[in-house]
Design brief:
There is one protein chain. The strands form 3 sheets. The protein has a 4-stranded mixed β-sheet. Helix 4 packs antiparallel against helix 5, helix 6 runs antiparallel to helix 7 and helix 6 runs parallel beside helix 8. Strand 9 and strand 10 form a beta hairpin. It is an alpha+beta fold. The chain folds into 3 domains: about 110 residues, Orthogonal Bundle (Butyryl-Coa Dehydrogenase, subunit A, domain 1); about 110 residues, Butyryl-CoA Dehydrogenase, subunit A, domain 2; about 140 residues, Butyryl-CoA Dehydrogenase, subunit A, domain 3, CATH 1.20.140.10. The protein binds acetoacetyl-coenzyme A. The site of acetoacetyl-coenzyme A has 24 residues, from helix 4, strand 3, helix 6 and helix 10.
Length: about 375
């Protein structure tokens, strides 16, 4: 297995690292405490080519690969998990399916502005009454000849309050379950489309999410993405890529927590010596470093498979499951190493601890990842 990166991959990683260290990290605590959407950072990510990393340049993107994308995601999320997930949703959950399933007109009108960062996208799958059981959606699409009519609601939609373009999955035949689902590209200006106020959450405070409502929304047939009835497979294959993005976000959060705990253990004295002299602390740091390495290798394996065009459903789920649970464990230990200061908002340890937790939930809970991994293992 070749673990070296190409010049282009290293360049994108360095670009993301410079941006994250100089522009994102200094603001991360304030963004979290104030719950402020990072308008200026989202605009900068567009300028730097981070909003459509793996989209070809003819469609507004950087024309790089998934490995470059995960390297960049880790750097941005290391500085600010909220900024990381804003980037992840636009790249993995919106640009990726538009590139894979969109026709040229859809790529020109929707993908190009999204990948270049002029517009922002979000992914409307989850509903108030269906999350893990995504095929049970209640949002309905009725065929009205030259257009569709959408009615329903989607919730926990990351980027929702700021998105220009919403990728919406709706059922045109509820009895058909997954096979009765179709995907649609919806403009925020569509009459009948409204938003609830942003959600209050445990972490990722600067990445706003909300519930959105569709009441008699007329969607031209030209905004149907992919074939009628292909919506569920589009959603699932999109999440195969999205889960690699969340694994990278988890890596970034965990790396930040680990690095800060390592530095703190050398500075802080207890019983007359640095904390780092204590074997109890050394063992924690060793476990954190080992788990980070393991998660990074799993994430890069899934990204490499995606780049080779190989089915990576199980490998993405493995990477997301391990990286997200690793992230929680690492953030927990990092806070513990900081002691009482770790519990205070004066230090970042508590932010990383809160931000870590969502990585085990969105884009498929840990339980869903285990279902996907087991299903693939059993049918092999
Ligand atoms: N790629 C392509 N096709 C796939 C697929 C994949 N990864 N996974 C399933 N399919 C296909 C199946 O082959 C099947 O097709 P056939 O009938 O033709 O064989 C069809 O889809 C239905 O598959 P299942 O029977 O396996 O479907 P299911 O209803 O049992 O659901 C599930 C399976 C794994 C539980 C799925 O519902 C799931 O992943 N749920 C979690 C949803 C999720 O991750 N939501 C996250 C929301 S997005 C988000 O969080 C964004 C954010 O805020 C950041």
């Amino acid at each position: 297995m070749d673990l070296s990166f190409t010049e282009e991959q290293r360049l994108i990683q360095q670009t993301a690292r410079d941006f994250a260290v100089r522009e994102v990290a200094p603001k991360a605590r304030e963004l979290d405490l104030e719950g402020r959407w990072p308008t200026e950072l989202v605009a900068r990510m567009g300028e730097l080519g981070l909003m459509g990393v793996a989209v070809p340049s003819e469609w507004g993107g950087t024309g790089a690969d998934t490995v470059s994308y995960v390297l960049a995601m880790e750097e941005v999320s290391r500085a600010c998990a909220s900024t990381g997930v804003i980037m992840s949703v636009n790249n993995s959950l919106v640009c990726d399916p538009l590139l894979k399933y969109g026709n040229d007109a859809q790529k020109r009108d929707y993908l190009t502005p999204l990948a270049s960062g002029q517009k922002l996208g979000c992914f409307g799958l989850t509903e108030p009454a269906s999350g893990s059981d995504a095929s049970q959606m209640e949002t309905i699409a009725v065929d009205a000849g030259d257009h569709w009519v959408l009615d329903g609601a989607k919730n926990w939609i990351t980027n929702g309050p700021k998105a220009d373009t919403i990728l919406v999955f709706a059922s045109h035949d509820r009895a058909a379950g997954a096979k009765g689902t179709t995907a649609f590209i919806v403009d925020k200006s569509t009459p009948g489309f409204t938003l609830n106020k942003p959600d209050h959450k445990l972490g990722i405070h600067a990445a706003h999410s909300c519930t959105m409502f569709f009441e008699g929304c007329k969607i031209p047939k030209s905004q149907q993405l992919g074939e009628k009835g292909a919506g569920f497979k589009i959603a699932m294959s999109t999440l195969d890529g999205g889960r690699i993005g969340i694994a990278s976000q988890a890596l970034g959060i965990a790396r930040a927590a680990y690095e800060k705990a390592l530095a703190y253990s050398k500075e802080r004295k207890a019983f007359g010596k640095p904390l780092a002299d204590k074997q109890a602390i050394q063992f924690m740091l060793a476990d954190m470093a080992t788990e980070l390495d393991a998660a990074r290798l799993l994430t890069l394996r899934a990204a490499t498979m995606k780049d080779k065009g190989v089915r990576h459903t199980s490998e993405s789920a493995v990477a997301k499951l391990y990286a997200s649970e690793m992230c929680t464990r690492v953030a927990h230990k990092a806070l513990q190493i900081h002691g009482g200061y770790g519990y205070s908002t004066e230090y970042d340890a508590e932010r990383h601890y809160r931000d870590a937790r969502i990585t085990e939930i969105y884009e498929g809970t840990s339980e869903i990842q285990r279902i996907v991994i087991a299903a693939n293992a059993l049918k092999a």
